[in-house]
Amino acid sequence: MCESPQIISATIFQSRRKRESCGTAKGICGDSRPRLSIGAKLRCLTRATALNSCQNWVSQFLNKNERAQGVFTIMSSKQHKLHLAGAFAVLVTLVLAVSCKGFFVNPTLTSIAISPTAPQVEQGKTLQLQAFGTYDDGTRKQIKSGVAWSSDTQTVATVDANTGVLTGVAPGTAGISASAQALSSSATATVFIVINSIAISPTSANIAVDGGSAQFTVSANGGTDITNGATLVAQLNGITETKINCIFDSTVQAQVCTDSQAPQGTYQVVASYPGSTLTATATLTVPAP
Fold first, then answer.
1. What are the C-alpha distances in Å from 214 to residues 180, 190, 255, 283?
2. Looking at domain 109-192, which CATH architecture does it have?
């Protein structure tokens, strides 16, 4: 390195000045000073060599520094452009957010529907019901909040007013309603049981006069009343008699079979239940028309 008084400062400008002041071997140890002693000449040559090294080092340092300054300038320019682009993007976003406020309007609910449309649930089990809405923009999606649920026959099926969870209480059917935003929808829920055995009571009945009727009840699995959900059909020699109609009557909680001028005879009343292949049979005597 250059020794005092030629020590190079850390700054670039001092380095440039020092490059100009560092001499050559000729300027220090040349012919202009012929009377130097041998020791002085050796010291002079050593100093001259140091000065030449100083000059070379300063030149290299300045060249590197100038190149570094160029790179920094380019990088600074690119960073400046990136900062400007980012600021512009933020500004555009803010302008759009302010100008579009209130422009997009939520679609209006026009109708709702219960899913599944004909729910079936086993006695003692639960089923999740859902409400779907159709909107004025043509879209359809699930309504996940603000739906009120109800059942018109809670002895058969109940439904949680807030969650729409349907619970089977007893075999039969119940009307389920869902309402939201002054709109409503309804569905008929069927509660069923897994039938292991089926029975009809009484096992025989008589219709005394033309136009009369007889009542039957149906049970499953040794005592579970399934009269409401059972189907009763009158047959003669394996042929269904359409003039004898059996319909569930909620006022008496029984299946009422009515004669409408059916031919005289003894009929088989066959009881069945949806989802089961098991049947039970009773006899029904019908008088002459």
1. 45, 26, 8, 11
2. Sandwich (2.60)
